[in-house]
């Protein structure tokens, strides 16, 4: 098959993490497919008739229904959607979102009217992904990958560690995965106003004691009503937060080959004691238990708060917003804290290359299985990866010496949009079933690009629990146990930090966790972890 120009990108652009044998390269977060020719990356693909070569676009004007995992109404159609349809030949009717924990998701399953493609975190399905297959909701993909997904198949053959992550212990493939690039696995951490630090003659804090000094100075000398603000998800569950300084995290993780539950550890009590003291001193936002992301943004850009925990793009957003009224405003990443200066924090924020999110399963009752497979497989082709990463040639990028270079639409957007805002319209970037490439988006603020290098300096990798899959029976038992325990630990955290219960009450909560079966949950996780290592 004749290869297009896009297939000839320099091999030097390939990332060591890439799961594609793609000659296209330097990509970043999630992005899109290729042009309407459908040539590059489709070589060797065959339809259900093994003797009939397959190439995009697929004939037949097929329409598929699609649902995402993000709660909300049907998203606005973007140029990337039109381009995807042109290149694959497959129309997608987006039905909106239904997270795994949402009632809409349960009602959808009960109705039997399941979309052709359902994107969600199938690792969280009650009973596990194998149960979803057994119950006849989603398709076991093994045989269909061999027939209709040559790009995904090739990627998995060339990357056995990723292959290991996206199947169950018995070898069942249940979804097309979203795979993060190596650089994309870290994307969040502490953010602080460096202009305030400079004004106060203080360095960027590295230890818990230094953070205490800084937050007191923000309160007393900058009149910050909420020196540090954050949502509860940053307490120590999604990231190490301040908890990581104490060598714990509020979740399951691995210590020297043993699965551990951070809330049971004595160090977690020490962490909560410190947070309750800070809250009493007025250093932590008094509304943190109920605050939303928009309110955090307002406080961070209006001098109410000087520090938070958030994602990388927050840095660009805060600088762009605050500098319109205060040109000296300067938001930067701070390292995850420790107790002892000069030591490396045990925890920060780090995702597995496959964390289970944005995984696209196909309905077991779909009348268009081949089309669904072909549409999803396109993202793993060379052209699909290029589109998902850099957008549309001639619109968001041009090839120069075989390398993609962004156009002024991205770099100097006439409407004043940031490069990430533009690419959200013309590529998929993240949270889409594909293999993420590093797109090296240009940024007006070097602080944004510098953040990842700062946040990645932790020992989190050695503690990361891979995407294990308990058996259906184990998963049911785990869900029964953890539903009650999750509610308990959240209640305990908030009561202790906010001072409605003393720190001594945590011992009582630990005993309650044990009575609710946390030790059995640890046994299940340990067994699943050991099976995972044997895959």
UniProtKB/TrEMBL annotation:
SUPFAM superfamilies associated with the record: Periplasmic binding protein-like II
PANTHER family xref list: ABC TRANSPORTER SOLUTE BINDING PROTEIN-SUGAR TRANSPORT (PTHR43649:SF17), ARABINOSE-BINDING PROTEIN-RELATED (PTHR43649)
Leader sequence segment: 1-23
Domain of life: Bacteria
Species classification: Bacteria, Bacillati, Bacillota, Bacilli, Bacillales
PROSITE patterns: PROKAR_LIPOPROTEIN
Keywords (A to Z) from UniProt: Signal
Keyword Signal among record annotations: yes
Cited Pfam families: SBP_bac_1
Location of the region described as Disordered in the Swiss-Prot/TrEMBL record: 26-55
Protein name: Putative aldouronate transport system substrate-binding protein
Membrane-spanning ranges: none
């Amino acid at each position: 098959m004749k290869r297009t120009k896009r297939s000839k990108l320099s091999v030097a652009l390939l990332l060591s993490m890439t799961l594609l044998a793609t000659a296209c390269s330097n990509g970043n977060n999630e992005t899109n497919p290729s042009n309407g020719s459908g040539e590059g990356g489709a070589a060797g693909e065959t339809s259900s008739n093994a003797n009939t070569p397959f190439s995009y676009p697929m004939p037949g004007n097929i329409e598929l229904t699609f649902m995402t995992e993000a709660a909300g109404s049907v998203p606005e159609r973007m140029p990337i959607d039109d381009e995807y349809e042109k290149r694959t030949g497959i129309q997608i009717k987006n039905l909106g979102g239904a997270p795994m924990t949402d009632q809409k998701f349960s009602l959808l399953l009960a109705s039997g009217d399941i979309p052709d493609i359902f994107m969600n975190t199938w690792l969280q399905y009650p009973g596990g992904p194998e149960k979803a297959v057994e119950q006849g909701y989603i398709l076991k993909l093994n045989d269909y990958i061999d027939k209709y997904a040559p790009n995904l198949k090739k990627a998995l053959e060339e990357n056995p560690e990723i292959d290991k992550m996206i199947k169950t212990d018995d070898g069942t493939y249940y979804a097309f995965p979203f795979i993060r690039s190596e650089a994309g696995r870290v994307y969040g951490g502490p953010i602080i106003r460096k202009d305030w630090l400079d004004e106060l003659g203080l360095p960027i804090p590295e230890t818990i004691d230094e953070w205490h000094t800084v937050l007191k100075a923000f309160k007393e000398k900058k009149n910050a009503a909420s020196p540090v603000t954050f949502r509860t998800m940053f307490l120590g569950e999604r990231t190490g937060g301040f908890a990581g300084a104490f060598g714990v995290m509020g979740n399951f993780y691995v210590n020297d080959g043993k699965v551990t539950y951070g809330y049971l550890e004595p160090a977690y009590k020490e962490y909560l004691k410190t947070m309750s003291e800070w809250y009493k001193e007025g250093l932590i936002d008094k509304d943190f238990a109920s605050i939303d992301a928009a309110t955090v943004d307002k406080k961070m850009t209006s001098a109410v708060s000087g520090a938070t925990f958030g994602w990388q793009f927050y840095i660009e957003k805060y600088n762009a917003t605050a500098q319109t009224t205060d040109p000296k405003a300067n938001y930067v990443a701070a390292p995850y804290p420790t107790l002892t200066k000069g030591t490396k924090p045990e925890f920060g924020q780090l995702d597995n290359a496959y964390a289970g999110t944005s995984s696209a399963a196909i309905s077991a009752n779909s009348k268009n299985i081949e089309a669904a497979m072909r549409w999803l497989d396109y993202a793993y082709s060379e052209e699909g990866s290029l589109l998902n990463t850099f957008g549309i040639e001639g619109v968001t990028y041009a090839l120069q010496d075989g390398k993609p270079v962004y156009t002024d639409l991205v770099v100097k957007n006439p409407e004043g949009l940031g490069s990430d805002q533009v690419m959200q319209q013309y590529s998929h970037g993240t949270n889409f079933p594909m293999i993420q490439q590093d797109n090296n988006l240009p940024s007006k603020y070097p602080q944004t690009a510098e953040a990842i290098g700062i946040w990645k300096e932790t020992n989190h990798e050695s503690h990361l629990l891979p995407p294990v899959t308990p058996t259906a029976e184990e998963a049911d038992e785990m869900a029964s146990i953890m539903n009650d325990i999750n509610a308990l630990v959240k209640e305990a955290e908030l009561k202790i930090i906010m001072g409605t219960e003393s720190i001594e009450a945590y011992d009582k909560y630990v005993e309650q966790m044990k009575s609710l079966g946390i030790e059995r949950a640890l046994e299940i996780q340990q067994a699943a972890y050991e099976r995972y290592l044997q895959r």
